[in-house]
Each structure stands twice: as structure tokens, then as C-alpha cells.
Amino acid sequence: MAVKKVGEKYRCHICHNEVTVTKAGGGTLICCGAAMEKIQEKFDPAG
User: Fold this and answer.
1) Closest listed residue to residue 25, CA positions, set 8, 42, 11, 12
2) Could you tell me the pTM of the whole model?
3) CA quadruple 24, 29, 31, 34: dihedral, nearest 10
4) 44, CA 20 to 30 Å: which among 7, 8, 9, 16?
5) Coil, strand or helix: which one is 6?
């Protein structure tokens, strides 16, 4: 999955490292030899 915008969060499904994008470059994040999975943001109506 290509990194598209600042603030997106990704997790490695192997070691569970997490990263937050600070500069989008369009590449694919790789960890432990596999593409990282984008973490879906959970909406909290309480803020």
C-alpha cells in the first residue's frame, strides 16, 4: 500500500512496530520483509 498523506499510521503484522508518516513519498513501507498494514483510525465522538 503506497503512503499517500502525512499522519497515516502503519503497523507491521509480524513484529507489531508502528509508524506515523511525517513526509509522504508514495512508496511502500516495509518491515520484517513484508509490506506494513495501514491502521484504520477509530472515530471517538467524545474527542
Assistant:
1) 8
2) 0.77
3) 170
4) 16
5) coil
